[in-house]
Amino acid sequence: MREGNLVNLILGIILACCTLNTYWVNAEDPYRYFTFQVTYGTRAPLGVQQKVILVNGQFPAPRIECETNDNIIVNVINKLDEPFLFTWSGIKQRRTSWQDGVLGTNCPIPPNSNWTYKFQVKDQIGTFTYFPSINFQRAAGGFGAFVVQPRSVITTPYPIPNGELDLLIGDWYNTDHKTLRKRLESGIQLPLPNGLLINGKSSTTLVLKKGLTYKLRISNVGIATSINFRIQGHLMTLVEVEGAHTMQETYESLDIHPGQSAAVLVSLKNLASKSYYFVASTRFTKPILNAIGILKYEGSTTPPSKPLPIGPTYHLHWSMKQARTIRLNLTANAARPNPQGSFHYGNITVVRRLIIENSLTKIKGALRCAVNNVSYVDPPTPLKLADWFKIPGVFDINTFTDTPTSRPAMLGVSVVNITLHDFVEIVFQNKESTVQSWHFDGTSFYVVGYGSGVWTYNMRKRYNLVDGISRHTVQVYPKSWTAILVSLDNKGMWNLRSTVWWRNYLGQQLYFKVWNDEKSLYTEADIPLNAIKCGKASKY
């Protein structure tokens, strides 16, 4: 090859590389930056002055709003007197379990220091939340809405509403989180919460315009109780649950269990222009706790009139029946152009089945919650760091069994070893007399069955293998079971936990190590340069 031609070829390659590199830079998904200063403050959510956790001086915490595939950068400044972590409930953290914000993946942020989370909301849309994950701080506040809007090129399976509002609803104690924590550690169960809050208040007023349709994003941010939500004279059309578009069923009231979120459309077109009550009430409790708000039509001076809209109280069968009506919209797009129903989960072979049974027990005289008779205890070294640096003695994959055993309950570090892309069936068996609620980090799963009594293999004939809803948090009714199917296609260390937070604190959780022996940035990001190292990982 002549010298001139060789030079031209080299210049052409360089130009092509520069052009390609410029394309990559320009094509990178947008970044959204947040700075959250976490402090204590005094508030009286139920009329009693108490210490709460504020984020940028706000209670509840600020809303995070972004769009599918955005990169999220959150600098968290911890001004508390104890370590702190945020977890991003429902954000799948694809390739980045380093950013999940639980003690199995992260060392906590020490007092008077900061740490920056960096993650992408890859291929997600929907209604989510974030909150403190350690030291029982969730009982003190710090929770906020996390909303992922769809890209403009993706069609939405309903008319775009005229506006949307967040409703963060949950139970609340008048006692500070440290006192509640000490009570649990002394072996005393927590009583029924003192009341319910709507957006951090015992009551609130929404002023909306007649003739318009609104999307309400409702999340149960409580730590103990299921809630029912309803609006006087108005029907609600369910359109989305935790990132999945649903069949658009209409409800007079809707059950939402701890850790769950849902989006509904409410039309203000066909009723008189006045004010109406809306009510959130606890389910399956005695007494029933209520929070009452007012939906006011803009410009109206007519106050709401009683009676309040009636909701279900203990009716378990009613709730289970409603849960079965929440189904996946198979033809709708979610975050990507392909229909949600294009993943035929019912045709995939299950390679492993786990039966997860919760229990309330005593271990060495202390009150504990266990899963298959193992009560989880966080080791000083996060599991993810131990696994990454191959540090021995932190966890043993043989501690946990796939099915309940008759062995005595014990303290331990429960880790389930799963090969990347395995398709797994999990049956949650609840032999207790209270509702359970389970959340799975790093993924979403298909809810395929609810039933009373003890699960048997024959129950699989009743599974919904066509349009079971995809979500990240599911309820299990008293003395009942719930079955899910999940494709574990996200490499990392993922927390499966109770969202009834006192049970979580007392050990009702475990982790899934999803892995393969191939190290690739396509399946998992390297450890962040700013990772905090603690325990046995401090020297690495």
Automatic annotation (TrEMBL):
GO terms for molecular function: copper ion binding; oxidoreductase activity. The lineage of its organism: Eukaryota, Viridiplantae, Streptophyta, Embryophyta, Tracheophyta. Keywords: Glycoprotein. Residues 38-151, 167-300, 381-519 form the Plastocyanin-like domain. Pfam families: Cu-oxidase (PF00394), Cu-oxidase_2 (PF07731), Cu-oxidase_3 (PF07732). This is L-ascorbate oxidase homolog. Belongs to the multicopper oxidase family. InterPro entries: Cu-oxidase-like_N, Cu-oxidase_2nd, Cu-oxidase_C, Cu-oxidase_fam, Cupredoxin, CuRO_1_AAO-like. It comes from Cucurbita maxima (Pumpkin).
